[in-house]
């Protein structure tokens, strides 16, 4: 990944056809059980189905969204599919990624700590212009919350990340997550 646009314009990430139709590799990171697969399935298929995890992982799922300026963004979404344990494989996985979505569970401070580990890892080894989103998932479990919203906001602000709380279960903020990421992508020049 040597180009100025990093993960956006090189062949590792699938390349970009033109300024109006972006194609980006997006990786999901975070502890097992925080809801990564459920977020993807909610976004791509519009459903909440915790049992269909086995169907992803072999390859990526993709989903295209249109922005108001008529740009389209095709996300090629890579889920770790349970490979969180093999930290040594992580650099292969996020290589060429234009976007990293780092997920924790708002009911679990341990997963928030782990999210911070992944942010540092990406700051060290990821593409320099990677767009990072910090996601506090399971926001429907407010009564079990153990990570205050402002902790997420503060950490994200300090690290130049976009922050949002989501629920894959209720679909709250799932589309917004991807729309906000799309808006933050560096655009290739149309010359
Ligand atoms: P992954 O290991 O990070 O991919 O996590 P999964 O997507 O497999 O989800 C782990 C568990 O969390 C499943 O039992 C889901 O039903 C549950 N889960 C995922 N997202 C949510 C959510 O937004 N709210 C609630 N209440 N449960 C969720």
From TrEMBL:
<dbReference type="GO" id="GO:0005525">
    <property type="term" value="F:GTP binding"/>
</dbReference>
<keyword id="KW-0547">Nucleotide-binding</keyword>
<dbReference type="GO" id="GO:0003924">
    <property type="term" value="F:GTPase activity"/>
</dbReference>
<dbReference type="InterPro" id="IPR027417">
    <property type="entry name" value="P-loop_NTPase"/>
</dbReference>
<dbReference type="InterPro" id="IPR005225">
    <property type="entry name" value="Small_GTP-bd"/>
</dbReference>
<dbReference type="InterPro" id="IPR001806">
    <property type="entry name" value="Small_GTPase"/>
</dbReference>
<protein>
    <submittedName>
        <fullName>Ras-related protein RABF1</fullName>
    </submittedName>
</protein>
<dbReference type="Pfam" id="PF00071">
    <property type="entry name" value="Ras"/>
</dbReference>
